[in-house]
Amino acid sequence: MFIADCHYLAHFLETVTRDLPKAATVFRKTCDDHQYGPSCQKFASLVRRGAAGSDATLSFDYDRKACDFGEPKSCFNAAMSIVLPGVNKRLQVQPDVSLAVKLLERGCDLGCDNSCYLAGGLYLVGVPGVLDKNVSTTYKYDFKACQLGNKLACANLSGALSVESLADSHEADDPISNGFLIRLMQLKISNERSRERYGALQAVR
Questions:
Q1: Do 74 and 41 contact (CB within 8 A), yes or no?
Q2: Which residues contact 205 (CB under 8 A, 6 or more apart)?
Q3: What are phi and psi of 161, to 5 degrees?
Q4: Alpha carbon 182 to chain centroid distance?
Q5: What's this model's pTM, rounded to 2 decimal places?
Q6: Contact, 122 vs 101, CB < 8 A?
Q7: Do 29 and 57 touch, CB atoms closer than 8 A?
Q8: Number of neighbours of residue 176 by Cβ within 10 angstroms
Q9: What's the CA angle centered on 191, arms 78 and 118, to 5 degrees?
Q10: Distance between alpha carbon 31 and the CA centroid of its chain, in Å?
Q11: Nearest-CA neighbor of 79 among 88, 71, 89, 90?
């Protein structure tokens, strides 16, 4: 049986037969035996939801595994386990905040817009004894987050200069500055169209 087949079997157990304990067992085994990131991520998710026990440390460990195996969302989830007070208190061993930074940076490298955005936020405010403030690094992460579709990052970047100053300076012709504004508008239009389509479907029903 191929690795993906094991994963799809577990997915079938989870979504069709609703046998969550058995699905969790298959996801976990596929992760451990084959280092298959999607299975590690799914097992962590089931544990986090309480569908396969309730162990914050176990969920964190498998999100870290999934992150190591290339799952960007798991990098973000593992980082949140460290920085969110309601979650990190349940961890058996308190990880260093520097690990959260590394997880967010890896998640960003793998294409998670929220990881980029939050990594930028950490560099913006700094973490005493762990991370120095670095506005240029914040800019870099916000730039990538915006490229990946994060509206908050786009808003931060487009708001770095007022509309008036853009209009009154040579930077009004800067394609990068204008690109942020255009990207933000595209996201806004896309969201509005999605809501309109959803409203039309509801009306038909």
A1: yes
A2: none
A3: -125, 140
A4: 23
A5: 0.73
A6: yes
A7: no
A8: 9
A9: 25
A10: 20
A11: 88
Q: Per-residue DSSP letters for 60-81?
A: HHHHHHHHHTT-HHHHHHHHHH
54-63's contacts with Cβ under 8 Å and 24+ in sequence apart are 56/81, 56/87, 56/90, 56/91, 57/90, 57/91, 57/92, 57/93, 60/91, 60/95, 62/28, 62/31
Residues recorded for the chain = 205
Residue showing tokens 């389509």 = 197
Joined together, the tokens standing for residue 163 give 């509309």
Q: Specify which of 87-91, 140-144, 176-180, 191-195 reaches the highest per-range mean pLDDT.
A: 140-144
The Cα–Cα gap between 161 and 36 comes to 45
Q: What is the full DSSP assignment across 2-60?
A: -HHHHHHHHHHHHHTS--HHHHHHHHHHHHHHH--HHHHHHHHHHHHTTBTB--HHHHH
Q: How many helices (H) and strands (E) does the chain have?
A: 12, 0
Q: Tell me which amino acid residue 93 is.
A: V
The encoded tokens of residue 17 equal 């037969």
pLDDT tens for residues 41-99?
999 999 988 887 778 899 999 999 999 999 999 999 999 888 876 666 677 666 678 89
